[in-house]
Structures are given as C-alpha cells and as structure tokens.
Amino acid sequence: MIEQTLDIATRDGAMETFICHPERGGPCPPVLFLMDAPGIREELHDMARRLATSGYYVMLPNLYYRAGRDTKYGPDVLKHGSEEHGRMRAVRTKMTIPPVMDDVAAMIAFADKQKAAKKGPVGTHGYCMSGPYSLAAAARYPDRVAAAASFYGTWLVSDAVESPHLTLGKAKGELYISCAEHDDLAPPEMVKELKALFDKSGNAGELEVHMGVHHGFAFPQRWCYDKPAAERHWERLIALYRRRLS
Q1: 12-31 average pLDDT score
Q2: What is the CATH number of the domain that holds 113?
Q3: Which pLDDT score is estimated for 222?
C-alpha cells in the first residue's frame, strides 16, 4: 500500500489530504472519502486503507482546513460539554454545502493529474455530516461522479442550498443512501420523505434503512459499532464502486 499526506490547492487554501492506493494494478479509480463531524483521525485512515486494498485511489481530505491546521480533535470530541467537542462544534456549525463542492472540484482536478489515479468516473461517499456533501457532489458534477453514497447522513432534507432532497433528480450516477433505524439526525419522518423523493427521481440506486442500529454504526471505535451492519456497509459500498467505476 502506498500512502501519503499532502496539501491540495483549493480556492480557499491548502487542504490537507490523506491519500492511499495499491502498489500494483494501477491506475486505480479515484474515490473521495468525506469525513464525519469528529474529523480526521486514525480510525478514518484505517477505513481508507481498507477501501484502497480493493483497488481504489482513495482521497480523505480534512474538510475543516479553512479553520486552520489545528482541526484534529482528541478522544473527547464526541463528549458533549468537553473542550474538544466545543472546538469541533465551533468549526462544524459553519460548514455549508457550496464550499465543499469547490473542494470536490479541486480533488477531482488533482486526481486527473496523478499517474496512479485512473482517468474517468469518480466515486464519493460521506458519513454523518458528509452524507449530504457526497450526494450533492453527484448532482453538481453529474458527468464525473458516477457513484455516490451517504452513510447515516445528517439532515438529508433541509433548507440548505443543494440539500440532497432538492438535487436527487440531477445526479446521473448511481446513489446509495444508507440510514440507521435509530438516528436523531435523520429521524424516520425525514427518511420517509426522502425515500418518496428518491423513488420519484428514478435514480437506479437505493435507499436502505438498517434496522436495529444507531447513527455511527460503521465506525469500529464508536460505542454503537455493529459489526454485521458495518460489514454490510463495506459490501454495499464496494459493490457500488465496482459497478460504476470499473
């Protein structure tokens, strides 16, 4: 496995990005792995590595880079009231979809120049806050993003610019939306509304609700980690990328 951390130039500055891909068998299709709210950490690096071993050029950016280099947080980041949680929320609450779309464009442009990255269709997947970013990218760049997945994405129906529920019909690529049965950030009523809109859009993909699990179920170090559901998430994601990025 080849891996490196480098800066990708964007409209707003230098975006630190973890990149990994196989030593052999390249060039590999590019995949944008968009982080959850707690931010970049070794847990996500390990997930990127696992995906790369399946034959992908995986790019994991620090989407908080506009707030500076000191945007990686300690283990208390999910503990409400902790200093780390407060530091993260101060950055997270300022995140909106349009600037992230500029970041997606910068990553695609970067991948196009790399010998190890295959030219052509790109995949995106996002967790938690980045679920909407992944789906929005498929709508913003329909001729490049051939596959986009959201895992327990937050507020998939909202008044945000380019909210997923407004853009489903604009995506040409296949979408996969994975929801947890227990998720305060994507309650059943919201998921039901999104499912109706998804079906109406005619997209070839799927919206799937995983029963008996909680928001964050795919993260090995999260209290709610559910191994069967987490492995199912890998199965769905890799199958999606194999269908659309081959």
Answers
A1: 97
A2: 3.40.50.1820
A3: 96
> Which residues touch 163 (CB under 8 Å, ≥6 apart)?
97, 132, 136, 155, 156, 157
pLDDT score of 161 more than 80: no
Supply the mean pLDDT for the chain: 96
Which residues lie below 8 Å from residue 187, measured CB to CB, with a gap of 6+? none
Contact 39, 88 (CB under 8 A): yes
Cα–Cα distance measured from residue 64 to residue 100, given in angstroms and rounded to the nearest whole number: 10
User: pLDDT-based confidence at 160, cuts 50/70/90?
Assistant: confident
The pTM of this model reads 0.96
Rounded Cα distance between 7 and 15, Å, is: 5
How many domains is the chain partitioned into structurally? 1
- Terminal-residue alpha carbon distance, the chain: 20
Question: CA dist 61 to 20, 48, 94, 101, 159, Å?
Answer: 12, 11, 17, 13, 26
CA atoms within 13 A on the CB side of 57: 24
Residues of the chain by 3-state class (helix, strand, coil), percent to 5: 40, 25, 35
Task: Note down the domain range covering 85.
Answer: 2-245
- A 10 A CB-CB count for 119 gives 12
